[in-house]
From TrEMBL:
It holds the Pfam family NnrS. It comes from Alkalispirillum mobile. This is Uncharacterized protein involved in response to NO. The keyword Membrane applies. It comes from the Bacteria. The chain crosses the membrane at residues 21-42, 62-92, 104-124, 136-154, 166-191, 211-241, 262-286, 292-314, 326-344, 350-373.
Length: 379
């Protein structure tokens, strides 16, 4: 009887990309969670008690949807057991949190998920980073994971004020994350598109402006956490909005109007500019916090995440250019949802209209993902 001998090839670990689960799971969760949250907050007998307060709504959008996106984008080489563990912890945290709000189990599951995520994405990132700006990105992710873990601990212990502070800090951290990652995605993509037309883009990553964004937002994040430092926090945020606007203008996205994916990324970055400007206004007492927060969480996070998801799956499955045209519809629905949430949030009709537009955007996004994985003969 012949014996099969293992070889280095057969013993080699197989790695997987986390976005295969987390991108569609995040979209499906966002599709369901937002209308359930509006129903729970503004109507009696909530269908999901864990989504029935503004604090829980913000928690699930940032630490449920947002961290799922971070996992899908950053965890690109994980073993199958690790991917299954991440997926199980995330899913169990969402389900338990929806039906058992403020309990020990959701806090534990969320904490374990954040810890495992940090161990997967941070060590290789920090080891490979040479420039301080790249190292700062690693420390930013560590700060985001740390704030998420502390939030779930504070929520589990019923420290309401601390929970709100950490949630507001997480909004700023997500804004900084999108300013950094968005620039790293948009700059080379726009430069390549312009070069294929025979032109040239001089302003790409723009390291000085990127460094300014990192330093200004870091200052804003620290000052916003300390009572009495609202003025420097607001000034830092207003300056961030100005730098981000200059960076966006220098990318000359109007030269890529034929590229729906780049248009969508530009719209998302534009929401970041608006959102940081509004967050600065909040620090001066000129605006309600919820208005600025939703410019970041709905407008910027919604538009940028759907663009990145569509581009990632479209490139991997070699979709034809016509596929990306549908992304413009998703971006338009997300942007309209954000506008309604900002301008018409004082009425139940406005809130439900914003929720319906968001849900519609996620339905189309999920349909795009399903279309991509269909057999080629059905495209």
């Amino acid at each position: 009887m012949s014996q099969t001998h293992s070889t280095p090839q057969t013993r080699r670990r197989r790695y997987h990309k986390a976005d295969t689960f987390f991108f569609p799971a995040a979209v499906l969760f966002a599709l369901i969670a937002v209308p359930l949250s509006v129903q729970g907050i503004y109507h009696h007998q909530p269908l999901a008690p864990g989504l029935a307060t503004p604090l829980d709504h913000g928690q699930e959008l940032l630490f449920g949807y947002g961290l799922a996106l971070v996992t899908g984008f950053m965890a690109t080489r994980v073993t199958l057991p690790t991917l299954l563990t991440l997926a199980t912890l995330w899913l169990a945290a969402r389900v338990s949190g929806a039906v058992m709000p403020h309990g020990a189990l959701p806090a534990l599951l969320n904490g374990l998920f954040v810890f495992l995520l940090a161990t997967q994405i941070l060590p290789p990132l920090l080891r490979s980073a040479k420039k301080w700006r790249n190292q700062a990105f690693g420390w930013l992710l560590l700060a985001l994971c740390g704030v998420a873990a502390l939030y779930h601990l504070a929520r589990g212990l019923d420290h309401y004020g601390v929970s709100w502070l950490l949630l507001r800090e997480s909004v700023l951290l997500f804004a900084l994350l999108m300013l950094f990652v968005g620039g790293r995605i948009i700059a080379p993509a726009v430069a390549g598109a312009i070069e294929r037309q025979g032109g040239r883009l001089e302003a790409r990553v723009q390291p000085r402006l990127e460094a300014a964004l990192l330093l200004l937002m870091a200052l804003a994040i620290v000052c916003a956490a300390i009572p009495g430092l609202g003025l420097p926090a607001g000034l830092a945020l207003l300056a961030t909005a100005g730098v981000a606007a200059a960076r966006l203008f220098r990318w000359q996205l109007w030269r890529c109007i034929h590229r729906p994916d780049l248009v969508a990324l530009g719209v998302g970055y534009g929401w970041l500019v608006a959102g940081t400007l509004l967050l600065g206004a909040v620090q001066f007492g000129w605006l309600a916090p919820g208005t600025a927060t939703h410019a970041i969480t709905v407008g910027a996070l919604g538009a940028l995440s759907t663009a990145v998801i569509t581009r990632t799956w479209g490139h991997r499955h070699r979709c034809l250019p016509g596929f990306y045209r549908w992304l413009l519809l998703v971006t338009a629905l997300v942007s309209l949802s954000a506008l309604l949430r900002i301008l018409w949030a004082d009425t139940l009709i406005g809130l439900w209209s914003a929720a319906a537009l968001w849900t519609g955007a996620m339905v189309f996004q999920l349909a795009l993902l399903l279309w991509v994985v269909m057999p080629r003969g059905q495209h």
